[in-house]
Design a protein that fits this description.
The protein is α+β, with helices and mostly antiparallel strands. The protein is built from 16 helices and 20 strands. The strands form six sheets. Strands 12, 13, 14, 15, 16, 17 and 18 form a seven-stranded mixed beta sheet that branches. Strands 2-4-3 form a three-stranded antiparallel beta sheet. Strands 8-9-10 form a three-stranded antiparallel beta sheet. Strand 9 and strand 10 form a beta hairpin. Helix 3 crosses helix 4, helix 4 crosses helix 16 and helix 5 crosses helix 6.
């Protein structure tokens, strides 16, 4: 979407082909954070040198230094262009630390941007083209809420500010449902996808959905010829004179590549939409492009829990920020032992699951909490203060017992290990210091905790039965292995030469992060930046080898 907008703003006539019936991909169901250092001047104490140092130390040899430099130099220009010429607007999170706070150059805020909320009613009938959020993230069957909204909901009805805020949310939502299939107050990734879609329509960019690209053939200086199957128009031949940008979301649902490239045991679950099935990568390989290699990680990970929906599909719920870091939860393996700082980033959490698995099975692991934690913070798909938990117990999503030993038996983990782990953790909670994994000592961990809990916002006792557990698995939120590209996003052959006019961005492109996850939005930020770079390069001329301007 960013590539199409940039192409139009540089005088080209882009055509956007979408394989599914709606637009937005994984971005539309995500938090929508966009990690672009130095994009909004005056919002932080960041600098180009600081961001360069941070990425060099965090990513190192796992990713291309040339791509990193292109991202750092062109990311702010991308944000500026969209902000000045389209409805795509961002603001920096007031406080959202980089994930690797121990690395020199990390910042506490400023690099991660959030899309401003968007009124979906502005899309009119095109609202149906927008991919909806994950159902389990919606309240009342269709209302989106942001982290700030959640803060007010938890304070309701204790403060006047919370009463005003929540009353406004509910009033708007109930009015929406008189006319719309879900709430039209859009936040997070849905707001970003909606803003991009609104901008596409405002610039009269042609969009064709349910499009399957059958062939992609180079015609030399004449560009590319695509054979596309569309509803009611199979075998349509399209001439792309200036080039083709592959941006199909990576191979999360490509069973062969997943089995071949993922670590063992292969993660079976993905948060991203099923249409992210490697179609762009297959087209790029068929055109002569080369696939990158696994570096630090072949994917970007999140711990996920699973529940069967009424329609028979499986809900894959990512445990990003709402429960793992709160005081009073631990993650244990089959031996009943902790193996990770539960409040670390979702990427590092799953990496720890794999590292610990050989010693004592940690795939799946279990999140353990007590009744007070469940009431106050919720657990996975169970929301804070949710009174009706019987359905979650009945279908096995939530496991409960009056004692830790009984809970261990139901989970088939070592009961003595669990009892010892909880006792040790409770001592840490009383002292405010986790001697095993330093939970709550880094700024990122504290950001996930409860700021009103002392002495450590991430440490609290598990001592109020009954006890509860949810089984947690490794899941991917996108793949990091993709087509090799140069700094202009051109797809490269195995010999390092560029295929003129063929570009890749997003998860179709070999990640410049090399499987390292440095900050919130570190996939969407580079994806948008290299979509911007690709379109600008195509607009300047397919054979241009000049520097970025």
């Amino acid at each position: 979407m960013t590539a199409a907008l940039t192409a139009r703003l540089h005088g080209l006539e882009p055509l956007l082909l979408e394989s599914s019936a709606c637009l937005g991909g994984a971005t539309a169901v995500s938090a929508g954070s966009v990690w672009v250092p130095n994009a909004l001047p005056g919002t932080s104490e960041d600098s180009l040198e600081g961001a360069r140092r941070y990425l060099a130390l965090a990513v190192g040899e796992h990713g291309s230094a040339v791509l990193r430099e292109a991202f750092l130099s062109q990311g702010p220009a991308m944000i500026k262009l969209l902000g000045e010429e389209t409805a795509v607007r961002f603001a920096p999170y007031p406080h959202h630390p980089d994930y690797l706070q121990h690395v020199d150059g990390a910042t506490l805020c400023g690099r991660s941007l959030e899309p401003l909320p968007f009124d979906g009613r502005r899309l009119g009938q095109a609202f149906a083209l927008l991919r909806p959020p994950i159902p389990e993230f919606l309240l009342l069957g269709g209302m989106m809420v942001s982290r700030d909204d959640i803060r007010h909901l938890l304070a309701f009805p204790k403060t006047p500010a919370a009463i005003r805020h929540v009353s406004g949310l509910l009033g708007r939502y109930f009015l929406d449902r008189l006319r719309w299939p879900r709430g039209t107050r859009l936040v997070m990734g849905n707001a970003l996808a909606a803003r991009l879609l609104y901008a596409l329509r405002s610039l009269d960019i042609e969009i064709r959905t349910e499009a399957s690209v059958r062939n992609l053939n180079s015609r030399g200086k004449e560009g590319f010829e695509l054979t596309v199957d569309l509803p009611g128009d199979a075998g349509l031949v399209i001439q792309a004179r200036r080039g083709v940008v592959l941006a199909t979301g990576g191979f999360s649902h490509h069973s062969v590549l997943r089995q071949r490239l993922f670590p063992k045991p292969v993660a079976e679950h993905s948060v991203v939409p099923a249409c992210n099935a490697g179609g762009g990568i297959e087209l790029g390989l068929a055109a002569g492009g080369a696939l990158g290699k696994a570096e630090a990680d072949p994917a970007f990970w999140a711990p996920v829990s699973l529940r069967r929906r009424r329609d028979g599909t499986t809900a894959v719920f990512p445990h990003f920020v709402l429960d793992r870091g709160k005081p009073g939860l631990i993650a244990v393996n089959r031996a009943g032992r902790r193996f990770v700082n539960e409040a670390t980033s979702y990427q590092r959490f799953v990496e720890a699951m794999y590292r610990a698995h050989d010693d004592a099975a940690s795939i799946p692991c279990a999140f353990i909490c007590d009744a007070e934690f469940l009431r106050r913070y919720g657990l996975g798909m169970i929301r804070p203060r949710q009174r009706r938990i019987a359905p979650f117990l009945k279908d096995g999503y939530l496991v409960t017992a009056s004692t830790l030993r009984e809970l261990a038996g139901k989970l088939r983990i070592d009961p003595a290990g669990l009892e010892e782990s909880v006792a040790r953790h409770n001592r840490f909670a009383a002292e405010g210091r986790d001697l095993d994994f330093a939970k709550g000592e880094e700024a990122y961990s504290r950001n996930l905790g409860d700021p009103n809990h002392t002495p450590n916002p991430c440490l609290g006792p598990l001592d109020k039965p009954p006890f509860f557990a949810v089984r947690v698995f490794p899941g991917d939120i996108g793949t990091s292995i993709g087509l090799q590209t140069d700094e202009y996003a051109r797809v490269l052959r195995a010999d390092g030469t560029a295929i003129a006019g063929l570009y890749a961005c997003g998860n179709d492109m070999q990640s410049l992060m090399g499987g390292i996850y440095p900050g919130p939005g570190a996939t969407i930020g580079p994806a948008m930046t290299f979509g911007y770079i690709a379109a600008r390069h195509a607009a300047r001329g397919r054979e241009s080898r000049g520097e970025h301007d």
